[in-house]
């Protein structure tokens, strides 16, 4: 039988997975550590951030969970980045309010702002910048958040970054990036990238979603036995981004 500590830890992770705030409170009050990790070395706080559970994030922080503690076997995954990559803005705000470092880098060099910008989460980008995230920090390929947002095709995210201040070099790089996508078949490009990563021979599925701002999202998934096992998506706002950046730079469309 499992000892009481291990059982309590298992119960806490189950409560987080199921989003049961009351159970989390009960277990923390019973002495289960907010610093607990599961068999894969994932921390409770990282899991709550991934699951978009800002209430539980706050409970764990109040119980002493470290907002800057890494998760995973190499402790290379940060809860702030986990929330940012999925656009979980309230969890991001809770972590920042508790002292999460906005520019902390994960194992492979990503920051919360780079993740949020690259995935088109404008509200999350805004929250991070308002709490001091550095808009100039680049990723391992020396690409800044504005370039990543331009590649994503997210006009809303580009607007937020421009409002917070970007220099001319960043704007020109982002303009060059967005122009590259004007005549690209996004679905075909995404499928090619997925097959390059996972190997040829997989069935694929493409979905297109409309957004309120008039742009769309193209989603491509690879299927195994009819079920998706890998996917990627991109927005279709590159033309709008070109117009935005040309306006900022005083250029005319080519």
Structure description:
With 254 residues, the protein is mainly α. The protein has a domain at 1-108: Alpha Horseshoe (Serine Threonine Protein Phosphatase 5, Tetratricopeptide repeat). 50% of the residues lie in helices and 10% in strands. The chain contains 13 helices and three strands, in the order ααααααααααααβββα. It has helices at residues 4-17, 21-29, 44-50, 54-62, 79-85, 89-97, 112-118, 122-130, 145-152, 155-163, 168-180, 186-198, 238-249; strands at residues 203-210, 216-224, 227-235. The chain has a three-stranded antiparallel sheet with strand order 1-2-3, covered by helices on one side. β2 (216-224) and β3 (227-235) form a beta hairpin. α3 packs antiparallel against α4 (54-62), α4 runs parallel beside α6 (89-97) and α9 packs antiparallel against α10 (155-163). The protein is globular, with a radius of gyration of 20 Å. The model has no long low-confidence stretch (mean pLDDT 93).
